[in-house]
Design a protein that fits this description.
This protein is mainly α and 128 residues long. The chain has helices at residues 8-23, 28-39, 42-54, 68-83, 94-110, 112-120; strands at 62-63, 66-67. The protein has 6 helices and 2 strands, in the order αααββααα.
């Protein structure tokens, strides 16, 4: 059995992420892709495990000064603007927005300039 590493914590996190994705209405392909990227980014994996345990974001990972909470709020603002309601209704799935925030952070770390522009330019109805 030399050389075999088994991290039960990651197996549990994977199962919980799949359940969260299902609850949030995400396609399995979204969740699988997100998991694959998280495996490559230890800092974001730590953030995910913290979220799964505490149902709040740790906010230690930052890209150009933006943390996951910033990306979550940005997701929420976009949701409210698209639906022209200005507040969060019961149809506003917070878990989906958290998962989107993780996906956005992964993408932002790969192409920060594009995402910083999106976050700072302001959004009008014709810019969505």
């Amino acid at each position: 059995m030399n050389g075999i590493l088994y991290d039960a914590r990651k197996v549990l996190a994977y199962e919980r992420l799949r359940q969260l994705g299902e609850y949030a209405g995400k396609e399995a392909s979204f969740t699988e892709s997100l998991w694959a990227e998280l495996l490559l980014d230890g800092e974001l994996m730590t953030e995910l495990m913290y979220y799964l345990d505490h149902h709040t974001l740790l906010d230690q990972v930052k890209c150009r000064g933006y943390a996951l909470t910033d990306l979550y709020v940005w997701q929420m603002d976009r949701y409210n603007l698209i639906r022209e309601i200005g507040k969060n209704t019961s149809g506003c799935n917070k878990e989906a927005m958290v998962l989107n925030a993780f996906r956005t952070m992964i993408d932002m770390k790969k192409d920060p300039d594009t995402y910083v522009e999106r976050l700072t330019r302001g959004t009008g109805m014709d810019e969505l």
